[in-house]
Amino acid sequence: MVGNGDHQRIEPRASCMLSYWQTQHLCWYVVRRIEPRPHACQDCSDGYMCKTHFQIKSGTMVSHPGTYAGVQTCPPVEEVLEVPLDDAEATETAAASEVIKYEYHVLYSSSYQVPVLYFRASFLDGRPLALKDIWEGVHECYQTRLQQGPWDTITQQLSSDIYWLPLVNFIRQIYQQEHPILGQPFFVLHPCKTNEFMAPVLKNSQKINRNINYITSWLSIVGPVVGLNLPLSYAIATSQDESNAL
Amino acid sequence: MTDDKDVLRDVWFGRIPTCFTLYQDEITEREAEPYYLLLPRVSYLTLVTDKVKKHFQKVMRQEDISEIWFEYEGTPLKWHYPIGLLFDLLASSSALPWNITVHFKSFPEKDLLHCPSKDAIEAHFMSCVKEADALKHKSQVINEMQKKDHKQLWMGLQNDRFDQFWAINRKLMEYPAEENGFRYIPFRIYQTTTERPFIQKLFRPVAADGQPHTLGDLLKEVCPSAIAPEDGERRNQVMIHGIEPMLETPLQWLSEHLSYPDNFLHISIIPKQTE
After folding, report:
1. Torsions phi, psi of A50, nearest 5?
2. Do B147 and A183 lie within an 8 Å CB cutoff?
3. Gene3D superfamilies this protein is in (chain B) (predicted)?
4. What's the count of helices (H) and strands (E) in chain A, helices before strands?
5. What is the ipTM of this complex?
């Protein structure tokens, strides 16, 4: 940002401009890398990618033996799907909890020439979650994961409140927008608007020197805040693959 | 040109006579009279209906009131679309006044955005203005403005102040002397017959050979069904602000004079009425 306090100027970072086809390629790449068993991922003729996953939200802090340890309110997706619902332990959890469906769509904005993340969450009966509910459900999960290893330097920096607070406050102010293809209310994350949050990350990374790396890093950092888990180690791996391919 | 500036005023001061009726299943303590209002075409429903809300809430109990929403003939009305667009698209073939039903219960979560405050309308409006400038000027003009200029655009719209609004908006309608127009034209085309809410694509105001593109050129490229068949009886009307501009109208001129305050051309394709 340049200028005095009154004069705010946030320019879209030139390196985050992607062509429509680069975005398509990126989305497929993301899907193949993080989903050994891709589920609920479709492409449509308009070229937007969607990812749906389900999480069980525990009502209270009850500790269970086995998969659900401690305060972990959102275990990784694969584990959730593998827990049979008639299991004795899981029944206790299911009674106190609700299944939440998270949907993430990556669309291409021709106006800004960048991919944009649309997301929403709802209970299985269709009741939508408000943004603060999404944040609260994800926040605890992310905090827990941040305390577990192994994570690289960048992630550890993210765990400090000073970095998180502006991002959290920004996320809290997101308004609903209309999905341009489905016409339904979604929340939207726009890479240019979160530009300022990327600065500390970019300063510390030597690998962010290509368009695709910027977007995967962006998704990896901002995504988990809204429940979309793309491990940062994936972003690093992407850049390694890219340089190996040269 | 004096004539062209008159167009700006005519667009800004366009009004739609509307009759608001409370939904029959809402619980009231006494009979609710309909409420009549002239709605500004260029504004947004939740920005101009405070009086409507107060009028109906007077006959209801506090516990029966939650977020207000509007509906026309069973279709929930998207408050984030300009009023004139909603009318042209859904009700222009019906007799006036426009009959809108008011609801305070059972908010349709899957169809409508919530409107928690005036700030939400401002945020939506400004994001449209910014997107339009991204298309017209790669965001250079909007980003060079101060925050108080952005605020003036919003206040001008909110308070129905044409001069206050255009003092700033005129800068968004300029383009470099060496160019023949904007980089791309901000437009959205709406049809009730399609799944998709609207069509929006990149489209230049001037062709590679320097010829100005017309409204007809735009439609032929991005929505050919709108003007089919080209020779013979047209099936559809192409409407902006309640009028059908000639298809030969230059797109750059339309963008400068018939855009809504959000700087977008919102174009409705509606089936032609058979007499």
Report:
1. -130, 145
2. no
3. 3.10.20.620, Autophagy protein Apg5, helix rich domain, Phosphatidylinositol 3-kinase Catalytic Subunit, Chain A, domain 1
4. 9, 6
5. 0.90
B86: distance to nearest CA of chain A, Å? Answer: 15
Q: Is residue B275 part of a domain?
A: no
Q: Which of B187, B184, B145, B190 is nearest to B168 (CA)?
A: B145
- Is residue B143 included in any domain, yes or no? yes
B113, B148, B202: residue with CB nearest A178: B113
Q: Are residues B144 and B188 in the same domain?
A: no
pLDDT < 50 stretches in chain A: 1-17, 28-46, 58-96, 145-146, 148-162, 208, 232-235, 245-246
Q: Which domain holds residue B153?
A: 117-174
**Residue B5 lies inside a defined structural domain of this protein:** no
CA of B24 vs chain A CAs: smallest distance (Å): 25
The phi and psi torsions of A105 (rounded to 5 degrees) equal: -120, 135
Please tell me if residue B148 touches chain A, with a CB cutoff of 8 Å: yes
Q: What is the pLDDT of residues B186-224, one digit of tens each?
A: 999 999 998 899 999 999 999 999 999 999 999 999 999
Domain count, chain B: 3
The torsion angles phi and psi of B167, rounded to 5 degrees, stand at: -55, -35
Residue B108 clears pLDDT 60, i.e. is over it: yes
* A19 in reach of chain B (CB within 8 A): no
Distance from CA of B202 to the nearest CA of A (A): 7
Identify whether the C-beta of residue B28 lies closer than 8 Å to the C-beta of residue B60: yes
Residue B229: inside a domain, yes or no? yes
Residue numbers in A near B78 (CB within 8 A): 178
Query: Are B167 and B187 part of one and the same domain?
Result: no
DSSP state of A226: G
